[in-house]
Design a protein that fits this description.
alpha/beta, globular, Rossmann fold, 9 helices, 5 strands, 2 domains
């Protein structure tokens, strides 16, 4: 999955707890097609998901819940402490996520396409495939506060997750557009609506290009 998407497309990313889902939801309400790679990953690792048989073979049933889904807590603890296990899990999930992402992109009929990719900056596959990179940003203190409240994790656990991601500085350096999500939903909505108007203009411009220039 290396070709550039023909539709005007934006890669949306941000650190854990930054508010990626909130921004994606608002853009979806404004007419964008939302393709969430994290949601795709969850569907692949739910009970009966396409990734489950190989995960069971590689890691054993102790990493599955009684109903046959991925035990996320157990797997999180494993991959944070074992880089080889992390690579094994990625070797299973990444090709399946890529396949499903491409299939959903081909079916997308919104005003433009938003790809929600938590590790977009960490990956080398996305930068040249989308037209813009949108980073949702907030302070690291606020990230920790939100995630401890939302996911019932300790501050140390959240910091460990953050340590596996690129730094806030690196993420912002990769951005074409930035939405700061540190105050209210109303303020966030205003920022998102401004971006939406910009993306509509860019989408129209891309649509008017000859087909040979879109790829």
């Amino acid at each position: 999955m290396t070709e550039k998407f023909t539709q005007f497309s934006v890669g949306l990313t941000g650190g854990i707890g930054s508010g990626k889902s909130a921004v994606a939801t608002l853009l979806g309400e404004l007419g964008a097609s939302i393709i969430d790679t994290d949601a795709i990953s969850h569907s692949l690792t739910a009970a009966g998901g396409a990734a489950i048989p190989e995960i069971a073979t590689l890691f054993g049933s102790k990493y599955l819940t009684p109903d046959g889904a991925l035990d996320r807590t157990a797997m999180r603890e494993l991959v944070f402490s074992d880089q080889a296990a992390r690579r094994q899990l990625e070797s299973v999930l990444h090709p399946l996520i890529a396949q499903k992402t491409l299939a959903e992109a081909k079916q997308a009929n919104g005003l433009y396409v938003i790809f929600v990719v938590p590790l977009l900056v960490e990956s080398t596959r996305w930068k040249d495939r989308v037209d813009r990179i949108l980073v949702v940003d907030c302070s690291e203190t606020l990230q920790i506060e939100r995630v401890t409240r939302r996911n019932n994790l300790t501050a140390a656990q959240v910091q460990a997750i953050m340590a596996t991601q690129v730094s806030r500085t690196q993420r912002l350096a990769a951005a074409n557009d930035v939405v700061v999500n540190e105050t209210s939903l109303e303020a966030l909505r205003t920022e998102v609506e401004r971006l939406h108007q910009s993306y509509l203009k860019l989408a129209r411009e891309k649509q008017s290009q000859p087909q040979s220039q879109k790829s």
